[in-house]
């Protein structure tokens, strides 16, 4: 057994994520048999002394049948209505299925927007830790009913990777309707299975296609999840869940890609979209990106969008390239009067409360396309 497969076998805390297609029927209802089979595996993991955090998709897919729908509706409001119905049904099913083993479940619904705000992030972390300490199986999903298009995470693959940071999991298992990553559409006869991804070079030339019948994100978000997880990730189908947890050489094994940046900054980078843009002069870009300083009013030359203090905003170079994302300390309407001014001048002319940074370094994550760096790196 390879070292990394063995690390999965020995992983004490594991995030297991199952996609919509593995949990629901083509008729838009819960697939009780497949849920029970998956719960059998998770309960066996618990009996072997593991802590399992289960990220379950399927709320929208399980709500379609009860609403008389045959396919995923295009509009967000109907998807949210379906999620509201489906989520309750899913958790009811998990509750009775885990009860067969004397195990309790706890529902944890997260929004990306909440997660990067310090206090909410800490609360979610504390709740998950407490559930695990009490021996309860957390069942995590996005809070679909309140997420708007702008702040919506959408797929649960990256959610699972971010949850693995939140709980400091040792491994992640992604369960889908395909048994592994392929070089192209798995329905094509010339597509070959990829057994291991050691780094970006192993992904060169691979066609990462879109999702299947009810899923979201397809392979793109699974590969992205593996990149940000920071721990070993196995991608396989739900029927192979037990083999994946046992470290058997099935599915696709993704080697951990990077050391772990701070969890909150990962959410900021991967789970949010900027609610507006701040354009910087070249000196400020250097200060923020290279020297990792806070963003001060003096370096801002432009502001776009209608955001309020506390919102995530994109931080741009003079040519418009997004170089960072951060939680802004001012409303959009306040910033034009502050731009180009020194903090000392602002404090003297407008009062000491204007001495604060536009974005504090602890709330700033540098986006360089490939890696996520932040001041709060662990
Ligand atoms: N290169 C590829 N390798 C494997 N599957 C792929 C690839 N490209 C696209 N897919 C598709 O991705 C789908 C799984 O993604 P998705 O529907 O989002 O699943 P889930 O609901 O499990 O998250 C599969 O049904 C498969 O057809
Ligand atoms: N939160 C959504 C997940 C959306 C989704 O389809 O995710 P996935 O099946 O993992 O690609 C739900 O429960 O329906």
UniProtKB/TrEMBL annotation:
Binding site for ATP: 17, 176-177, 216-222
Entry-linked PANTHER family: GLUTAMATE 5-KINASE, ISOPENTENYL PHOSPHATE KINASE
A biological process term (GO) from this entry: L-proline biosynthetic process
Name of protein: Glutamate 5-kinase
UniProt main location, coarse: cytoplasm
Top-tier EC class: transferase
Gene designation per UniProt: proB
GO cellular component: cytosol
InterPro entries on file: AceGlu_kinase-like_sf, Asp/Glu/Uridylate_kinase, G5K_ProB, Glu/AcGlu_kinase, Glu_5kinase, Glu_5kinase/COase_Synthase, Glutamate_5-kinase_CS, PUA
Top-level taxon of origin: Bacteria
UniProt-annotated binding residues for substrate: 57, 144, 156
Pathway: Amino-acid biosynthesis; L-proline biosynthesis; L-glutamate 5-semialdehyde from L-glutamate: step 1/2
């Amino acid at each position: 057994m390879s070292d990394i497969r063995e690390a999965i076998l020995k992983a004490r805390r594991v995030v297991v994520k199952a996609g919509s297609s593995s949990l629901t029927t083509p008729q838009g209802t819960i697939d009780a048999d497949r849920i029970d089979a998956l719960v059998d595996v998770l309960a066996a993991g618990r009996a072997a002394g593991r802590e399992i955090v289960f990220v379950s998709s399927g709320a929208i897919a399980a709500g379609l049948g009860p609403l008389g729908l045959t396919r995923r509706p295009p509009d967000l409001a109907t998807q949210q209505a379906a999620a509201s119905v489906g989520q309750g049904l899913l958790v009811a099913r998990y509750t009775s299925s885990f009860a067969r083993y004397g195990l309790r479940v706890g529902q944890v619904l997260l929004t990306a927007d909440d997660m990067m705000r310090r206090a909410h992030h800490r609360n979610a972390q504390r709740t998950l830790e407490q559930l695990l300490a009490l021996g309860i199986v957390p069942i995590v999903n996005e809070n679909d009913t309140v997420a708007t298009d702008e702040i919506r995470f959408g797929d649960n693959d990256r959610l699972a990777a971010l949850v693995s940071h939140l709980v400091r999991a040792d491994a992640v298992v992604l369960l889908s309707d395909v048994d592994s990553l392929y070089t192209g559409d798995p329905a094509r006869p010339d597509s070959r299975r990829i057994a291991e991804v050691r780094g970006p070079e192993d992904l060169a030339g691979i066609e990462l296609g879109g999702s299947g019948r009810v899923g979201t994100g397809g392979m793109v978000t699974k590969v992205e999840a593996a990149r940000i997880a920071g721990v070993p990730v196995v991608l396989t189908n739900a029927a192979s869940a037990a083999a994946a947890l046992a470290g058997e050489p099935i599915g696709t094994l993704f080697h951990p890609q990077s050391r772990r940046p701070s969890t909150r900054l990962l959410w900021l980078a991967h789970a949010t979209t900027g609610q507006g843009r701040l354009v910087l002069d070249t000196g400020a870009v250097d200060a923020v990106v290279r020297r990792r300083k806070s963003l001060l009013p003096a370096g801002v030359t432009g502001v776009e969008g209608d955001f309020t203090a506390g919102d995530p905003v994109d931080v741009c170079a003079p040519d418009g390239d997004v170089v960072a994302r951060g939680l802004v300390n001012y409303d959009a309407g306040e910033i034009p009067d502050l731009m180009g001014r020194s903090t000392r001048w602002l404090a003297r002319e407008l009062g000491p409360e204007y001495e604060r940074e536009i974005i504090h370094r602890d709330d700033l994550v540098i986006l360089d396309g490939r890696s996520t760096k932040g001041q709060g790196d662990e």
